[in-house]
Amino acid sequence: MDIQEQIVNKVAQSGLVSVDPASFYPAGDRVLYDIKDNLYMGLILREKDFRDFVKEHDWAQYTGKYVAITCTADAIVPTWAYMLLANRMAPYAKEIVFGNLDTLETILFEKALNTLDVEQYRDKRVVIKGCGDVAVPNSAYIELTSKLTPVVKSLMFGEPCSTVPIYKRKD
What we know:
Oligomer: single chain
Number of helices: 6
Radius of gyration: 23 Å
Low-confidence stretches: 7-13
Strand order of the largest sheet: 1-5-6-7
Helix content: 25-40%
Structural class: alpha/beta
């Protein structure tokens, strides 16, 4: 018997189905718009100055980008100011959220995972891949777990060759 015939891929024979959360990662540039740069003396938002800025700013620079709008300064910013920014960016940006870049990633993954057809995993042994080149927020793992638990036979975390059990249906 030759060496090729003796090698058995037990992972391939295990019937495990691997789900890579990174495959739901929407490609595109992420941008943080910090309204602190529009504050007078870093403290207050002057309506006239802000409206002038909004009229003159090149909003096309946000074309095709995912944008998080925030204010990192310790200042009170009226809600309408965020709304005005979102209104001007909307024709250009792919997505606009309020919050930081972590919030943006959470929302992008949540929206992408909402398109997941969980029926394809019904009664399967599923491994949610745990590492890769894309940073996946914990919220995405939680979302995947809550969507898959009702339909899978078992759910694990990690790699098919080394998993941590999360759930096993009692039959």
